[in-house]
UniProtKB/TrEMBL annotation:
Pfam families attached to this UniProt entry: Methyltr_RsmB-F, RsmF-B_ferredox
SUPFAM superfamilies linked: S-adenosyl-L-methionine-dependent methyltransferases
Example GO biological process: methylation
Keyword tags: Methyltransferase, RNA-binding, S-adenosyl-L-methionine, Transferase
Residue sites binding S-adenosyl-L-methionine per the record: 245, 266, 281
Protein name (record): RsmB/NOP family class I SAM-dependent RNA methyltransferase
Family affiliation: Belongs to the class I-like SAM-binding methyltransferase superfamily. RsmB/NOP family.
Length: 380
């Protein structure tokens, strides 16, 4: 496909997304109906769509309207390119520019939905604007080295054997930032053999901060694909690891991932007994990961956020009795909004005097990678 044909395809996909379809679904649909498109074309169209969604409102202003065409025209203008060079109407290129597709100023548009902006500003204070601007860029790819299988140097070498370049992070040597050829990862030897696992830096830093001692009973109460429990697995010998999720089907990949990682994780329908460490990586707005899932930023509604906050509070109430006296509760979200983080924890602590907060930290793309929150609490 020519660059102009890829833009035409992105316009088609974006129009579906703007009509309400999730981006992944719209891309899959386009892929299935475009057998002529090679893997390079698919990746390029995907990049165009995600870039447009990260910068939706500012690109719409620059491109003359909130349509697939407007977003692509605005994107070219934002990159300092002349859209009339691409919108030629020739071959598979999009039709020539219309008079109404003139640029408007996008200087004050930060690409945060209007109703979220007050919450965003109140949560992030002086960093709010810089963070909103940072959220318009693509997120880096991070890997976690599995200490059971090898160290960072061995992982970097194995990845290089498959042409993938990665470098270790000073804050956490077992976190590797991929600097070239990330698309080869799923086929790489290091990944297939469980030497590395995909995981953003911020949750890796959070999991590295969890207290685990040999032989501890650890429960991941909202385990999903198991990212957090697997990050804890190699931290100490003899851990008894349990994973639970209200929707057991969310854990379907966990046994295979655990096997690849050389870890044993029991999937439990109803957790029994008490645990030294309970991880509650609760459902959240995902506001810390909007660079990766930019369409969810525009889909979130105030009522849905209220429901999410209420669910988080219910989960905290449910897990509290599962923590042993002397044990720890790790509350985590991939949100950067206070209502889901500090305020949620404050409410829980006010109602549960047996718990106190040992530490808390919020990571953002300005200091780590994705936005992520950890509150570590101890039970008397
Ligand atoms: C943020 S995701 C977890 C991601 C996962 N920990 C990981 O690292 O891949 C939240 C999970 O909580 C689960 N969940 C939702 N409501 C729940 C509840 N009441 N009790 C337990 N799990 C719940 C969801 O099914 C979802 O898999």
């Amino acid at each position: 496909m020519t660059p102009a044909a890829r833009i035409s395809a992105a316009i088609e996909v974006l129009d579906q997304v703007l009509a309400g379809q999730p981006a992944e679904q719209a891309l899959l649909r386009w892929s299935r109906s475009s057998r002529f498109a090679g893997s390079g074309d698919r990746a390029a169209v995907r990049d165009l769509v995600f870039e447009a969604l990260r910068c939706r409102d500012s690109h719409a202003a620059l491109g003359g309207g909130l349509t697939g065409r407007g977003l692509m025209i605005g994107g070219l203008r934002a990159a300092g390119q002349d859209p009339s060079q691409v919108f030629t109407g020739e071959g598979h290129a999009p039709a020539t520019l219309r008079p109404e597709e003139e640029p408007a100023s996008a200087d004050d548009i930060l690409d945060i939905p209007g109703w979220i902006r007050p919450l965003w500003d109140a949560s992030l204070g002086p960093a709010a604007e810089a963070l909103a601007r940072q959220m318009r860029h693509r997120a880096p790819v991070w890997l976690r080295v599995n200490p059971v299988k090898g160290d960072a140097a061995a992982a970097i070498q194995a990845l290089a054997g498959d042409g993938i370049e990665a470098e270790s992070d000073v804050r956490l040597p077992t976190a590797l930032r991929v600097t070239a050829n990330e698309r080869r990862l799923s086929q790489s030897r290091a990944y297939a053999e469980g030497l590395v696992e995909l995981q953003d830096l911020s949750p890796q830093l959070a999991c590295a901060a969890l207290p685990v001692s040999p032989g501890d009973r650890v429960l991941d109460f909202c385990a999903g694909g198991g990212g957090k429990i697997l990050a804890v697995a190699g931290r100490a010998p003899g851990l008894a690891l349990s994973a639970h999720d209200a929707d057991m089907s969310r854990m379907r990949d966990l046994p295979q991932r655990a096997q690849r990682a050389g870890a044993r994780v029991d999937l439990v329908g109803k957790p029994k007994g008490r645990f030294d460490l309970v991880i509650a990586d609760v459902p959240c707005s995902g506001s810390g990961t909007w660079r990766r899932t930019p369409d969810s930023k525009w889909r979130l509604r105030p009522e849905a956020l209220e429901d999410i906050v209420a669910l988080q509070a219910r989960i905290l109430r449910e897990v509290a009795p599962l923590v042993k006296p002397g044990g720890h509760l790790a509350y985590m979200t991939c949100s950067i909004l206070d209502s889901e983080n500090g305020r949620q924890v404050d409410r829980f602590l006010a109602e549960n005097s047996a718990f106190h907060q040992v530490s808390h930290h919020r990571w953002t793309p300005l200091d780590a990678s994705d936005g992520f929150f950890l509150s570590l609490m101890a039970r008397e």
